[in-house]
């Protein structure tokens, strides 16, 4: 009996195992059921995101646009600054030029004053006797009307006046810009800058003679009554004398407003010199000035101004005196001969 119990237990266990297998085969699997049912779940909405490359391109474009804007603003600012700097430099250059011109004029005046002072001291030195003739040094010509002075100084006495083209004998003696000349055994001093080795051209009889030759003419001139309107008789005489003696001069000035007496009163005439800045023009101006001076008593002249030089009857013994620099060709009487009459 006891030997059969184990066998019976083993048989029952085998039988139970077979039943479990059969039951499991008969019942459907839960996973199998799920697989058989169609999917009915709605998928969630997913928004499209920019691709990384596209995002980087957009960011780069924004940066480039901002950089271009900054560059344009900087360029405009630089251009404006450059233009302002250029204008400021031009202004400074103009001011510097004006100051330089004023300085040069002042220095020229100082040099002239120093030269005159030096000449006066030289003339006073015991070793320099202006009346003693030096050794002969050749021949020269006066390039314009030239004062002969008693000593090498612009303030010394005028003892003679040389006409343009006058030949003179010079000596080896010089002082303060003056050269000594031999005046038939007597010493004289002239400004050396107005001496030349070549004889200058002078006007012939058709164009009017130089210096004091030729009597003033009283006939009407081509420049006519327009110029003479309002002029005093002596001023009319000056106008007619110049226009006849120097026919190349066709432009004159008469009555006009001026702060200085003369023109407003009809007692002054301006003879405008053609091509005054040329050598021939300057020579012509000096011929006119010397001609009027030579006939001052006949024409009633009291004052002659040309080329920044002045001569007056009140100080006739001093000859041509240098005037201060007034700034321009007209103000300094370089482009015209001014004549004042009684």
Series of H and E elements: HHHEEEEEEEHHEEHHEEEE
Number of helices: 7
**CATH top-level class of the domain at 224-341:** Alpha Beta
CATH topology tier name of the domain at 224-341: Muramoyl-pentapeptide Carboxypeptidase, domain 2
Can you summarize the main beta sheet?
6 strands, antiparallel
Radius of gyration: 56 Å
The number of strands is: 13
Shape: elongated
Average per-residue pLDDT, rounded, comes to 79
**Roughly what fraction of the amino acids lie in strands?**
15-25%
Side by side, the strands of the main sheet go: 8-9-13-10-11-12
Q: What structural category do the secondary elements indicate?
A: alpha+beta
Structure explained in plain terms:
With 342 residues, the protein is of the alpha+beta class. Among the domains are: 100-200, SH3 type barrels; 224-341, Muramoyl-pentapeptide Carboxypeptidase, domain 2 (2-Layer Sandwich), CATH 3.30.1380. Helices cover 41% and strands 19% of the residues. It has seven helices and 13 strands. It has helices spanning 4-26, 30-36, 52-124, 224-228, 233-245, 279-294, 296-299, and strands spanning 136-142, 146-149, 158-162, 167-175, 178-183, 186-191, 195-196, 252-253, 268-272, 301-306, 309-312, 321-322, 336-341. The strands form three sheets. A six-stranded antiparallel sheet has the order 8-9-13-10-11-12. Strands 6-5-4-1-7 form a five-stranded antiparallel sheet, with no helix packed on it. It has a two-stranded antiparallel sheet with strand order 2-3. The radius of gyration is 56 Å and the shape is elongated. Residues 203-212 have low confidence and may be disordered.
